[in-house]
Amino acid sequence: MAITNDGTILGIESSCDETAAAVVRRGEQVLSNIVFSQIAIHQPYGGVVPELASREHLRAIVPVVRKALADAGQSYQSIDAVAVTRGPGLAGALLVGISYAKALAFALDKPLIAVNHLEGHIHAVLLEERQKGNRVLNFPVIALVVSGGHTHLYLAEQNGESWSYQNIGRTRDDAAGEAFDKVAKLLGLGYPGGPLIDKLSVFGDPTAERFSSPRLKHRDRNESVGDKNSDELPRFDFSYSGVKTAVLRYVETHDLAAAIDVRRKHLTQISKPTIEDYRAACDQETLDLVASFQHTIVDDLVTKTLIAARSYEAATLLVTGGVAANNELRRRFETDGHKEGLQIYFPSRSLATDNAAMIAAAAYPKFLKQEFAAMDFSAEAGLALR
Ligand code: KG4
Ligand code: ZN
Predict the structure, then answer these.
(1) 3-state DSSP call for residue 9?
(2) 198 CB less than 6 Å from ligand 1?
(3) Which pLDDT does position 230 carry in this prediction?
(4) Domain 138-349 grouped into CATH 3.30.420.40
(5) Fewer CB within 10 Å, N or C, the chain?
(6) CB of 328 closer than 6 A to ligand 1?
């Protein structure tokens, strides 16, 4: 295999409901970034249907990769390596990207690099900071990866080109984005819930309803979950199924079911509802409920993360993953975090949610170290980040 070192990497991402491909040079210069979203396919079901996701990835992968190469002015031959998400994610969805990446790498005789999706989210931030000329991070660095499938806190370390991560917190049940999606579904608003609740919350009173913040027993916080050295590290776990259940209880005790049914039916009749359509379909009580729910989640994420940052004497905090697109979350981290003297970095909104530029960027240090994947690796739905 001939290894060229211009560092032009084709990234492929198919872990959930976006088929994505991107070409990134030296982990920094995004030559193209194509994301084909399956939202419309899954919307009628109020969540991602794994079999449909795999089928749609199969349909989309070839044209999406072709467009990423064309937009980047590259050919199959001119790229230096193929990087692909190995996990975590939906096994059948991951396998589509992995099989295609393997076939490409084999046919082109190019190196293949396997990337952890969560590391990709972290590198979305690093990529954009490098673009801004910010090449030096102050350590210790803590990263909050908060998305539809994950709510993880990591201590991130860099040794030369290599990055390693220690998990210092995770959700015990629902991920924060999952809670957003489930509550939106419960209120008849549709999928994905996060962006909708984000936009609708500005019309509601976040203090109207007081949901108690998720509390974990001290014992749980310090419990080891089997990660490297985790038994020696203080833990800061999260829990979001209680808040979701509290919203459900509110719906039941305030007899909102009939109104929710009307809203759901009304919104499904509009082909592309705007935020004004969503707002008009909600009464003030619902807008207050949505704003109070978001406020509870954001308050918990920010408070726990900042306690963790203090405990680890962190100098830098990276906040990434789909929920990092949330306006209230960004505002709260910026005000509360800066008061603590923390440097806080978010990805732009387009790189916060799933994309392949972050996969190509995370692959670059592995490319430099020639940390290539063997052709027999497979998808790992529950792949841990270390
Ligand atoms: O990172 P991502 O695209 O996919 C996963 O790896 O899960 O994250 C998707 C999640 C969904 O749960 C979606 O509702 C949530 O991120 N999300 C948001 C916002 N935009 C996306 N949650 C809150 N506010 C947003 N603006
Ligand atoms: Zn993701």
Answers:
(1) strand
(2) yes
(3) 52
(4) yes
(5) N
(6) no
Taking all residues of the chain, what is their mean pLDDT, rounded to a whole number?
Answer: 94
Q: Name the residue of 43, 48, 147 to mutate for ligand 1: max ligand atoms within 8 A of Cβ.
A: 147
Starting at the edge strand that comes first in sequence, how are the strands of the sheet with 8-13 ordered?
29-37, 18-25, 8-13, 81-87, 112-116
Q: Structural domain boundaries of the chain? A: 8-126+352-368, 138-349
138-349 shares the fold of 8-126+352-368: yes
Going 356 to 358 to 363 to 364, the CA torsion angle's sign is positive
Phi, psi of 213 (to 5 degrees): -65, 140
Name the closest-CA residue to atom 16, ligand 1.
322
Of the listed ranges 135-144, 230-239, 338-347, 366-375, the one predicted with least confidence: 230-239
**How high is the pLDDT of residue 266?**
97
For residues 266 and 138, give the distance between their C-alpha atoms in angstroms, rounded to a whole number: 51
- For domain 8-126+352-368, which architecture applies? 2-Layer Sandwich (3.30)
Q: Give yes or no for residue 225 having a pLDDT over 80.
A: no
Atom of ligand 1 nearest to the CA of 15: 6
Q: Are 165 and 157 contacting, i.e. CB atoms less than 8 angstroms apart?
A: yes
